[in-house]
Amino acid sequence: MIVVSDNKIRKRKVIKLSDRYRKLWYGENPEERLGTKCLDKHIRLLKRYVPDFVIDYGIAEKEMFIDFKIRPGKQLRHCKFTNELKEKVRNYCIHSLNKTWPYAHRDWTPTNIIIDNDSIHLVDWDNIFLASEEYTIQDMIDRIDEKINQ
Fold first, then answer.
1. CATH code assigned to 2-69
2. Please, is 48 exposed, middle or buried when counting C-beta atoms within 10 Å of its C-beta (0-12, 13-18, 19+)?
3. Phi-psi region of 67 (alpha: psi -120 to 50; beta: other; left: phi over 0)
């Protein structure tokens, strides 16, 4: 077991186990920190949009966890970010947005995009939310461009 991150302000840990990542939220009302504000709804959305990603999950009064599949590859932030790769990532994120709309991932940062040869994966789906209540698809594409161009 390796603690990958421990954010005491957000009361969230990420632990790498032998065959998965475990994201653990602790403290009062852990579900409130999900984009959906509800673990069951969050899991239903993940199973719908990234069906092979969630391995296990659970909740108690002051603790919640989700176990995720380890995606092969490396974070985009560790890749040589050529114009070709940038365009490929942008297209992938827009495709993902169109696939999940009216919901959106919302956190398209280089740490949440995994590159494995010709494959791209989004990870860290904590913030998936009903985007159409606040944004248009073009608003979200603008956010993708902003994150990719950081």
1. 3.30.200
2. exposed
3. beta
